Amino acid sequence: MSVLVNKNSKIIVQGFTGKEGTFHAEQMIKFGTQIVGGVTPGKGGSIHLKRPVFNTVKEAVAKVKADTSVIFVPPAFAADSIMEAAEAGIKVVVCITEGIPIQDMVKVKNYIKNYNCILIGPNCPGIISADEAKVGIMPGFIFKKGKVGIVSKSGTLTYEAADQVVKAGYGISTAIGIGGDPIIGTTTQQAMELLLNDSQTDCIVMIGEIGGQLETDAAHWYKSLGATKPVIGFIAGQTAPKGRTMGHAGAIVGGENDTAQAKMKIMSECGIHVVNSPAEIGNTVASVLG
Protein backbone atom coordinates (compact mmCIF):
# COMPACT_ATOMS: atom_id res chain seq x y z
CA MET A 1 0.00 0.00 0.00
CA SER A 2 1.06 3.63 -0.19
CA VAL A 3 0.21 7.03 1.20
CA LEU A 4 -0.52 10.33 -0.57
CA VAL A 5 0.06 9.03 -4.12
CA ASN A 6 -0.56 5.72 -5.85
CA LYS A 7 -1.22 4.20 -9.28
CA ASN A 8 -4.70 5.76 -9.34
CA SER A 9 -3.54 9.33 -8.64
CA LYS A 10 -4.30 11.71 -11.51
CA ILE A 11 -1.37 14.07 -11.65
CA ILE A 12 -0.80 17.35 -13.43
CA VAL A 13 2.43 19.32 -13.80
CA GLN A 14 2.35 23.07 -13.18
CA GLY A 15 5.06 24.59 -15.32
CA PHE A 16 4.54 21.65 -17.68
CA THR A 17 6.16 23.07 -20.83
CA GLY A 18 9.23 24.58 -19.15
CA LYS A 19 12.64 22.92 -19.18
CA GLU A 20 12.43 21.43 -15.67
CA GLY A 21 8.75 20.53 -15.97
CA THR A 22 9.32 18.77 -19.28
CA PHE A 23 12.36 16.78 -18.15
CA HIS A 24 10.84 15.55 -14.91
CA ALA A 25 7.42 14.91 -16.45
CA GLU A 26 9.16 12.59 -18.92
CA GLN A 27 10.88 10.78 -16.04
CA MET A 28 7.62 10.45 -14.11
CA ILE A 29 5.84 9.05 -17.16
CA LYS A 30 8.64 6.50 -17.69
CA PHE A 31 8.22 5.43 -14.06
CA GLY A 32 4.56 4.66 -14.78
CA THR A 33 3.04 7.68 -13.07
CA GLN A 34 -0.39 8.68 -14.37
CA ILE A 35 0.37 12.17 -15.70
CA VAL A 36 -2.95 13.37 -17.14
CA GLY A 37 -1.85 16.81 -18.33
CA GLY A 38 -0.20 20.04 -17.33
CA VAL A 39 -0.65 23.75 -16.83
CA THR A 40 1.19 26.59 -18.56
CA PRO A 41 -0.74 29.89 -18.72
CA GLY A 42 -1.09 31.03 -22.34
CA LYS A 43 -0.47 27.59 -23.83
CA GLY A 44 -3.85 26.06 -23.06
CA GLY A 45 -5.27 23.93 -25.86
CA SER A 46 -1.88 22.67 -27.01
CA ILE A 47 -0.43 19.17 -26.58
CA HIS A 48 2.87 18.49 -24.78
CA LEU A 49 4.38 15.03 -24.25
CA LYS A 50 1.17 13.66 -25.80
CA ARG A 51 -0.85 15.22 -22.98
CA PRO A 52 -3.17 18.25 -22.88
CA VAL A 53 -1.96 21.64 -21.67
CA PHE A 54 -4.37 23.87 -19.75
CA ASN A 55 -4.26 27.57 -18.89
CA THR A 56 -5.43 27.01 -15.30
CA VAL A 57 -5.49 24.27 -12.69
CA LYS A 58 -9.25 24.71 -12.38
CA GLU A 59 -9.60 23.77 -16.04
CA ALA A 60 -7.37 20.71 -15.55
CA VAL A 61 -9.46 19.53 -12.60
CA ALA A 62 -12.66 19.95 -14.60
CA LYS A 63 -11.45 18.26 -17.80
CA VAL A 64 -9.10 15.46 -16.69
CA LYS A 65 -10.21 15.06 -13.04
CA ALA A 66 -6.74 15.88 -11.67
CA ASP A 67 -6.34 15.32 -7.91
CA THR A 68 -2.57 15.79 -7.50
CA SER A 69 -0.21 18.49 -8.75
CA VAL A 70 3.55 18.82 -8.90
CA ILE A 71 4.94 22.34 -9.27
CA PHE A 72 7.99 23.31 -11.35
CA VAL A 73 7.44 27.07 -11.37
CA PRO A 74 10.07 29.81 -10.71
CA PRO A 75 10.22 31.07 -7.09
CA ALA A 76 8.49 34.39 -7.81
CA PHE A 77 5.35 32.61 -9.07
CA ALA A 78 5.39 29.40 -7.03
CA ALA A 79 3.30 30.66 -4.11
CA ASP A 80 0.50 31.69 -6.48
CA SER A 81 0.73 28.26 -8.12
CA ILE A 82 0.29 26.49 -4.78
CA MET A 83 -2.71 28.63 -3.85
CA GLU A 84 -4.24 28.16 -7.31
CA ALA A 85 -3.96 24.37 -6.98
CA ALA A 86 -5.55 24.39 -3.52
CA GLU A 87 -8.40 26.63 -4.66
CA ALA A 88 -9.05 24.42 -7.70
CA GLY A 89 -9.61 21.37 -5.52
CA ILE A 90 -6.27 19.55 -5.82
CA LYS A 91 -5.87 17.22 -2.81
CA VAL A 92 -2.07 16.70 -2.84
CA VAL A 93 0.17 19.59 -3.91
CA VAL A 94 3.89 18.87 -4.29
CA CYS A 95 6.09 21.95 -4.69
CA ILE A 96 9.62 21.22 -5.90
CA THR A 97 10.62 24.90 -6.29
CA GLU A 98 13.57 26.13 -4.23
CA GLY A 99 14.04 29.72 -3.12
CA ILE A 100 10.44 30.79 -2.47
CA PRO A 101 10.54 33.89 -0.21
CA ILE A 102 9.56 33.12 3.41
CA GLN A 103 6.99 35.91 3.33
CA ASP A 104 5.28 34.18 0.40
CA MET A 105 5.13 30.89 2.29
CA VAL A 106 3.58 32.62 5.32
CA LYS A 107 0.75 33.70 3.02
CA VAL A 108 0.48 30.23 1.47
CA LYS A 109 0.26 28.45 4.82
CA ASN A 110 -2.48 30.79 5.98
CA TYR A 111 -4.36 30.52 2.68
CA ILE A 112 -4.45 26.74 2.26
CA LYS A 113 -5.87 26.23 5.76
CA ASN A 114 -9.22 26.94 4.14
CA TYR A 115 -8.90 24.06 1.69
CA ASN A 116 -8.85 20.30 1.99
CA CYS A 117 -5.38 19.73 0.60
CA ILE A 118 -1.97 18.50 1.71
CA LEU A 119 1.11 20.50 0.66
CA ILE A 120 4.46 18.72 0.41
CA GLY A 121 7.44 21.06 0.17
CA PRO A 122 8.54 23.51 -1.08
CA ASN A 123 12.22 22.89 -1.79
CA CYS A 124 11.69 19.14 -1.74
CA PRO A 125 12.29 16.07 -3.95
CA GLY A 126 8.62 15.06 -3.83
CA ILE A 127 6.87 11.80 -3.04
CA ILE A 128 7.38 8.32 -4.43
CA SER A 129 5.31 5.19 -3.85
CA ALA A 130 7.45 2.39 -5.21
CA ASP A 131 6.10 0.71 -8.37
CA GLU A 132 3.07 3.04 -8.34
CA ALA A 133 3.75 6.77 -8.71
CA LYS A 134 6.63 9.21 -8.66
CA VAL A 135 5.65 12.84 -8.08
CA GLY A 136 8.86 14.83 -8.09
CA ILE A 137 12.53 14.47 -8.94
CA MET A 138 13.59 11.27 -7.13
CA PRO A 139 15.60 8.71 -9.15
CA GLY A 140 12.89 6.08 -9.51
CA PHE A 141 15.14 3.09 -10.27
CA ILE A 142 16.44 3.06 -6.67
CA PHE A 143 13.01 2.46 -5.15
CA LYS A 144 11.72 -1.12 -4.92
CA LYS A 145 8.36 -2.06 -3.40
CA GLY A 146 8.35 -2.97 0.28
CA LYS A 147 7.22 -2.02 3.76
CA VAL A 148 9.67 0.66 4.89
CA GLY A 149 8.43 4.26 4.82
CA ILE A 150 10.82 7.22 4.59
CA VAL A 151 10.32 10.78 5.86
CA SER A 152 13.14 13.15 5.04
CA LYS A 153 14.13 16.81 4.91
CA SER A 154 17.02 15.92 2.59
CA GLY A 155 16.55 14.83 -0.99
CA THR A 156 19.93 13.17 -1.41
CA LEU A 157 19.68 11.29 1.88
CA THR A 158 16.22 10.06 0.88
CA TYR A 159 17.79 8.30 -2.09
CA GLU A 160 20.69 7.04 0.01
CA ALA A 161 18.34 5.59 2.63
CA ALA A 162 16.16 3.93 -0.01
CA ASP A 163 19.19 2.41 -1.72
CA GLN A 164 20.44 0.96 1.57
CA VAL A 165 17.04 -0.39 2.56
CA VAL A 166 16.69 -2.15 -0.79
CA LYS A 167 20.24 -3.54 -0.65
CA ALA A 168 19.49 -4.85 2.86
CA GLY A 169 16.73 -6.98 1.33
CA TYR A 170 13.74 -4.77 2.09
CA GLY A 171 11.76 -2.23 0.08
CA ILE A 172 9.94 1.08 0.24
CA SER A 173 6.22 1.72 0.71
CA THR A 174 6.27 5.51 0.29
CA ALA A 175 9.09 8.03 0.63
CA ILE A 176 8.08 11.61 1.48
CA GLY A 177 10.60 14.39 0.98
CA ILE A 178 9.09 17.13 3.14
CA GLY A 179 11.57 19.86 2.15
CA GLY A 180 14.23 21.87 3.91
CA ASP A 181 12.82 25.39 4.03
CA PRO A 182 11.93 27.20 7.28
CA ILE A 183 8.20 27.04 6.40
CA ILE A 184 6.94 23.85 4.77
CA GLY A 185 3.51 22.42 4.16
CA THR A 186 3.83 19.08 5.95
CA THR A 187 5.88 18.55 9.11
CA THR A 188 7.96 15.54 10.09
CA GLN A 189 5.28 14.52 12.58
CA GLN A 190 2.45 14.78 10.04
CA ALA A 191 4.37 12.70 7.50
CA MET A 192 5.24 10.10 10.15
CA GLU A 193 1.59 9.90 11.17
CA LEU A 194 0.57 9.04 7.61
CA LEU A 195 3.06 6.17 7.56
CA LEU A 196 2.27 4.97 11.08
CA ASN A 197 -1.37 4.70 10.05
CA ASP A 198 -0.52 2.80 6.87
CA SER A 199 -1.14 -0.93 7.37
CA GLN A 200 1.48 -1.84 4.77
CA THR A 201 4.31 0.16 6.36
CA ASP A 202 6.14 -1.82 9.06
CA CYS A 203 9.04 0.54 9.80
CA ILE A 204 9.89 4.21 9.26
CA VAL A 205 13.20 5.89 8.46
CA MET A 206 13.17 9.52 9.64
CA ILE A 207 15.92 11.77 8.30
CA GLY A 208 16.22 15.25 9.76
CA GLU A 209 18.63 18.16 9.81
CA ILE A 210 19.94 20.77 12.18
CA GLY A 211 17.68 23.75 12.76
CA GLY A 212 14.10 24.03 13.96
CA GLN A 213 12.05 21.73 16.16
CA LEU A 214 10.33 19.41 13.68
CA GLU A 215 12.30 16.31 14.62
CA THR A 216 12.08 16.80 18.37
CA ASP A 217 8.36 17.54 18.14
CA ALA A 218 7.90 14.34 16.15
CA ALA A 219 9.99 12.34 18.62
CA HIS A 220 7.98 13.51 21.65
CA TRP A 221 4.75 12.82 19.78
CA TYR A 222 5.95 9.34 18.82
CA LYS A 223 6.82 8.56 22.44
CA SER A 224 3.42 9.79 23.64
CA LEU A 225 1.69 7.36 21.27
CA GLY A 226 3.44 4.33 22.69
CA ALA A 227 3.71 3.28 19.05
CA THR A 228 4.98 -0.19 18.24
CA LYS A 229 6.24 0.51 14.70
CA PRO A 230 10.00 1.02 14.90
CA VAL A 231 11.54 4.29 13.72
CA ILE A 232 15.17 4.66 12.62
CA GLY A 233 16.41 8.24 12.86
CA PHE A 234 19.34 10.23 11.51
CA ILE A 235 20.15 13.94 11.81
CA ALA A 236 22.38 15.57 9.18
CA GLY A 237 24.73 18.42 10.02
CA GLN A 238 26.63 17.03 13.01
CA THR A 239 29.70 19.17 12.31
CA ALA A 240 27.90 22.35 11.24
CA PRO A 241 29.06 25.61 12.87
CA LYS A 242 26.51 27.60 14.86
CA GLY A 243 24.80 30.46 13.03
CA ARG A 244 25.66 29.43 9.47
CA THR A 245 23.00 28.17 7.06
CA MET A 246 24.02 24.77 5.73
CA GLY A 247 22.46 23.69 2.44
CA HIS A 248 18.76 24.14 3.05
CA ALA A 249 17.44 27.51 4.14
CA GLY A 250 16.03 25.97 7.30
CA ALA A 251 19.23 24.16 8.27
CA ILE A 252 20.77 26.59 10.72
CA VAL A 253 21.70 26.14 14.37
CA GLY A 254 20.06 28.98 16.25
CA GLY A 255 19.98 27.53 19.77
CA GLU A 256 21.18 24.61 21.86
CA ASN A 257 18.27 22.37 20.89
CA ASP A 258 18.84 22.98 17.16
CA THR A 259 22.09 21.02 17.06
CA ALA A 260 22.31 17.52 15.63
CA GLN A 261 23.58 16.18 18.96
CA ALA A 262 20.66 17.63 20.95
CA LYS A 263 18.10 16.28 18.49
CA MET A 264 19.71 12.83 18.41
CA LYS A 265 19.70 12.66 22.22
CA ILE A 266 15.99 13.56 22.40
CA MET A 267 15.09 11.11 19.64
CA SER A 268 16.94 8.31 21.37
CA GLU A 269 15.23 9.07 24.69
CA CYS A 270 11.88 8.87 22.87
CA GLY A 271 12.49 5.33 21.64
CA ILE A 272 13.82 6.05 18.15
CA HIS A 273 16.74 3.93 16.89
CA VAL A 274 19.25 6.71 16.19
CA VAL A 275 22.19 6.11 13.85
CA ASN A 276 25.32 8.26 13.79
CA SER A 277 25.90 7.90 10.05
CA PRO A 278 23.62 7.45 7.06
CA ALA A 279 25.79 4.44 6.20
CA GLU A 280 24.19 2.61 9.15
CA ILE A 281 20.56 3.01 8.01
CA GLY A 282 20.27 -0.20 5.98
CA ASN A 283 21.83 -2.47 8.59
CA THR A 284 19.75 -0.90 11.35
CA VAL A 285 16.51 -1.47 9.41
CA ALA A 286 17.54 -5.09 8.89
CA SER A 287 18.34 -5.62 12.57
CA VAL A 288 15.08 -3.97 13.73
CA LEU A 289 12.86 -5.88 11.33
CA GLY A 290 14.89 -9.05 11.80
Note the main attributes of this structure.
Rossmann fold; nucleotide-binding; 7-stranded mixed beta sheet; 9 helices; 290 residues
Write the layout of secondary structure elements.
Blueprint: E1 11-14, H1 19-31, E2 35-39, E3 47-48, E4 51-54, H2 57-64, E5 68-71, H3 75-88, E6 92-95, H4 102-112, E7 118-120, E8 126-129, E9 133-136, E10 145-152, H5 155-167, E11 172-177, H6 188-196, E12 203-209, H7 214-225, E13 231-236, H8 260-269, E14 273-274, H9 281-289
Parallel strand pairs: 1-2, 1-5, 2-4, 5-6, 6-7, 10-11, 10-12, 12-13, 13-14
Antiparallel strand pairs: 3-4, 8-9, 8-11
Helix pairs in contact: 2-3, 3-4, 5-9, 6-7, 7-8
Written description of the protein model:
There is one protein chain. The protein is α/β, with parallel strands linked by helices. The chain has helices at 19-31, 57-64, 75-88, 102-112, 155-167, 188-196, 214-225, 260-269, 281-289; strands at residues 11-14, 35-39, 47-48, 51-54, 68-71, 92-95, 118-120, 126-129, 133-136, 145-152, 172-177, 203-209, 231-236, 273-274. The protein folds into two domains: 11-120, NAD(P)-binding Rossmann-like Domain (Rossmann fold), CATH 3.40.50; 138-289, 3-Layer(aba) Sandwich (Rossmann fold), CATH 3.40.50.261. Helices cover 34% and strands 22% of the residues. Strand 13 (231-236), helix 8 and strand 14 (273-274) form a beta-alpha-beta unit. The protein is globular and about 55 Å long.
